[in-house]
């Protein structure tokens, strides 16, 4: 009787444990992927630079990312989030090994949420400025400087992609953590 | 022996149930608070309008929120999130009544995360534009139109507050849901 109870317990907990381990492994892979995306974003924006082929005696016409504070925020935030994702791999690996760990998962949900907010905020602020840079705004008399700095604008627009991919990955990570916690 | 086991089970589950109910009630209150904040943000931005006391024959100098697409996005998103928060009160109330409900909590975590992303995105995009409106950008030759439209700028800056409060509330909601799910 006792043995059969233990056996039935094993039968019901084994697929659950397997599913949790599967979720943890996917969590690990998604973190690596998001870290690469945010690193690419930070590098792409941080190295964007264009100098016009002409110059007056007093001016050099040049566009660099630190001309606009939102782009500095974008590069800083993506670097921080990338660093966090790499560090969180330790906790994520711990979750693969110890499927019943609970506190580490709640800590990850909280930190993921904060980082998700940070990266969303940086990507949106940069996207708003990139939009104005492309299309300008006649109501505010803001000139679209992308008409001159084509290469620079291509780089800053492209750098948004990695960041927005990271945003989607974070939503998946939080959802997966929620499911994983509920399976305990 | 059996009775004592049941009793000890009751003793350990009762404070846990009480804690979960407490978290659910706080969840409900925070949702009402965030709904009011996002509604205030949407109204404050949506009704911001200023007309200059002078006009030429062909132009009227006027600033309205739909001059800039990010402000339209801000009003729309805050309205959607406010609507979602009001609707989510039903699920939140259900969680107060049925403390062991699990699927409804995971659904809430997922939807909260998506809405958190939306409201963060809208608040950041609007904040980026408000920053440029206040300080301009000499590198991009963008003129700070707040030097003319003082009242309008006060309104749009103020409207950001409610939205950023909602951002913080969402982080708390997601964390509380995580803790609540783990206590099952």
Automatic annotation (TrEMBL), chains A, B:
Main location: membrane
Membrane topology field: Multi-pass membrane protein
Location(s), subcellular: Cell membrane
Organism superkingdom: Eukaryota
Record key words, sorted: Cell membrane, Membrane, Transmembrane, Transmembrane helix
Cellular compartments per GO CC: plasma membrane
UniProt cross-references to Pfam families, sorted A to Z: CASP_dom
Subunit annotation: Homodimer and heterodimers.
Family statement drawn from the similarity comment of this UniProt entry: Belongs to the Casparian strip membrane proteins (CASP) family.
Protein name: CASP-like protein
Species, as recorded: Pisum sativum
